[in-house]
Amino acid sequence: MQIELKLPDVGEGIAEGEVVRWLVAEGAKVKEDDPLVEILTDKANVEIPSPMSGTVVKILAAPGQIVKVGGPLALIEPAAGPGKGSPSGKTAGAAGEVLATPFVRKLAKDLGLELGAVPGSGPGGRITEEDVRRAAGPKTPAGAPAESTPEERIPFKGRRRMIARKMVAAKTRVPHALLVDEADVSGLLSERAKMREIGEREGVRITILPFVMKAVAGALRGHPALNASLDEDREVIVLKKKIDVGMAVDAGDGLVVPVVRNADAKSVIELAREIERLSAAAREGTLAPGDLTGGTFTISSVGSIGGLFSYPIINVPEAAILAAHKIVTRPVVRDGEIVPREMMYLSLSFDHRIVDGGEATRFLNEVVRRIEASAI
After folding, report:
1. What is the pTM of this model?
2. CA torsion through residues 229, 12, 242, 369, sign
3. Span(s) in the chain for CATH 3.30.559.10
């Protein structure tokens, strides 16, 4: 009797996911807990394992398809007895035993590659999709002109589509208001130079972000309206008791926002270490779903890239987001004299349903004061 594999509830309020790729092909024999399919949610990429040993009879959801929780993914024919079925991705090839998933095997076949000749970079020499694509290299279809075409069409799916849906929801549902100020970070840069010596001993890189995060977290303690969300269904403003600060990370395949827990209770060194860990995991695609949920406020640090200042979009359902920009030496007046100082713009977007302009201004004033006084 064939069993229908359904998209399970992976928690964190996720209602649907997009099929990224199948790790097995139709007809593949799998063991219980073998990974079958990679699913992209608005939180993270997750692999759905096989609930039993058996044979994948039919794939019901193609890559790029959106599937609701409880929706069908595939049909599996259970094995006759416990433990039956061979491991997914192990077969013998001409060059000996070749480790690769059925998806990778099919890709190699489609690209005209002999799988046994492809060096494997995965665990135990397993051949990955990246290995196959690297071996195939760029190719021009037979008969196609050598010159480039006037345009390139990229499928609008995966993380880019997830980001787009979230951004549209944020801008259409939330009345954004923007507040811009600047901070003199000359003293902070001096403090960072001292902290870098400690960071070298601790094995952690000290950037500007942990200082800004510490200042923001401290200011949030006295301004709970900025550390809140709006429950529209129940018409309740939810003031968060914990200060869990998200940070926007450019992960290559799209923007992700991992969360630093209890940011107000951490030192600059502790924040730097956690920021470094989460940033690396984001770029490597190894963030756990729990790393991407439960944020109460978000910081977007774009200073290393450039730009004068921006209008960041709120990470709903949070009440606000702060963008920290590049540091520029500018002439400013101090004690009646024009002197060069290291200045940084700060942009605060806030949900005007929850936060009024006066409270937002007081909060940003507090952030600036903490940065300038190095009271962090």
Report:
1. 0.69
2. negative
3. 163-373
